[in-house]
Amino acid sequence: MINTADVVLTGTDILFVTLDSLRYDVARTALAEGRAPHLARLLPGGVWELRQTPGTFTLPAHMAFFSGFLPKLPQPEQPPRLWECRPPSFKTVPSQTFLFEAPNLLEGLKQHGYRTVCVGGVTYFSRETPLGGVLPDMFDEDHWRPEFCSPEPDSTRHQVDQALALANQHSGRPLFLFVNISATHVPHGFYIGDSTDSIRSQIAALAYADTHLGRLIDTLTHDRHWLIIMCADHGDAFGEGGYRGRGIVRPEVTNVPFAAWLS
Length: 263
Known about the structure:
Strand content: 15-25%
Largest sheet: 7 strands, mixed
Structural class: alpha/beta
Shape: globular
Low-confidence stretches: none
Mean pLDDT: 97
CATH superfamily: Alkaline Phosphatase, subunit A
Number of domains: 1
Oligomer: single chain
Number of strands: 11
CATH topology: Alkaline Phosphatase, subunit A
Order of helices and strands: HEHHEHEEHEEHEHEEEHE
């Protein structure tokens, strides 16, 4: 059980990684096939939790995450939430949940001295459109370049390089570092030499990202303690029932991998 209230009280750094569009079955298969050895080493018990996302595409999922609603277990009883906006007086919240007195997590962390930093991936973090500024505006600072986005075959390397530079730059104060990994977002067929995106190409995309995710976490935790949260925001349909893409309520979209641990 992670006591996030204590994490924030002690100023422990927080890394929150979203693997954009990564299906749970893809994440599980990549581990089973030995395609994600760094994640297998780092994840608690070497496995992903099956959870269900509150949003079926990037914008609503992340708005929910930053409002206190992370993916839930597919069962009636839930563990204490990691963070939550202060609720009405009639509701009781477990003591280990970080309660923020603000409209969103980022504002709440700022009140406790955290610097909130975003390394964007997909275009909802790019500021290229009016909607592309909604999520970045929530942070103290945000970073996005075209090479961070999914059409770039080496996007995760560029993102991790940026994230590590920022972590080093802000080493003197508590840091909330958010990274939206875009490699698992379409298009990813090129990872297997195909023009069509599929389960197999998303596995290959995760296999590519795995090395850089291992580098990110190993470097960050070498001399600092971190709370690490890693999950997908949603999944993608690859032709099941005739559906492709996201923004639809299907298990391929709503079932996501999740993990959280202290390191």
